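User: Just a sanity check before I run the rest of the batch. Below are the structure tokens for the first item. I only need the designed sequence back.
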């Protein structure tokens, strides 16, 4: 009995440690990279690492933690955009803030596994792709949800007007720009650099 329980206990311990890292990054400046007037978020990195090490369920949980505290920021008025969208529809904003991040964690794990199956032995390549996929999909799903759920509301339309764009795609590009590119690059590098040696230690 003890032998069969050990892998499960070990996985739960690893997931708890990654959750702790996620929370530390959420509540400290460690989760942000200052880029002049904007901050690039690194909060998808623990999600990517957990997804690649422990699978889709872990990716979903860590994505939920990421999204849940983003949702709380809106609820508490810490995020101007989040608060404005929450006022339009709390349920739709929950789907945007939390649902997009859960889906991101699941997909990052599946993409990592797919690359590893397609390229056996190329652990670094798979980890780099998975590490890139998490922040990339976070941007795609989050902004996609904003367009799908809130594009017609007054707040988003005011942003569209301020950007001087004429369609949803141009609006998304104008919103993410340099910030997203930095998040994708840093996520790819850090997640791959951490996951490959950590997976050897875990094994």
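Assistant: Here's the designed sequence for the first item:
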């Amino acid at each position: 009995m003890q032998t069969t329980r050990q892998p499960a206990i070990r996985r739960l311990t690893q997931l708890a440690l990654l959750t702790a890292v996620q929370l530390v990054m959420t509540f400290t400046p460690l989760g942000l990279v200052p880029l002049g007037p904007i901050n690039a978020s690194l909060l998808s990195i623990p999600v990517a690492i957990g997804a690649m090490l422990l699978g889709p369920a872990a990716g979903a949980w860590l994505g939920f933690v990421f999204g849940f505290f983003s949702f709380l920021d809106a609820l508490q008025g810490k995020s101007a955009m989040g608060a404005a969208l929450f006022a339009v529809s709390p349920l739709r904003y929950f789907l945007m803030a939390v649902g997009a991040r859960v889906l991101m964690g699941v997909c990052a794990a599946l993409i990592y596994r797919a690359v590893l199956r397609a390229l056996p032995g190329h652990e670094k390549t798979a980890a780099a792709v998975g590490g890139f996929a998490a922040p990339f999909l976070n941007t795609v799903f989050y902004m996609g949800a904003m367009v799908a759920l809130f594009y017609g509301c007054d707040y988003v339309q005011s942003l569209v007007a301020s950007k001087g764009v004429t369609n949803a795609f141009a609006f998304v590009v104008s919103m993410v720009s340099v910030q997203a590119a930095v998040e994708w690059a840093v996520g790819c590098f850090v997640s791959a650099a951490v996951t490959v040696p950590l997976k050897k230690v875990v094994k």
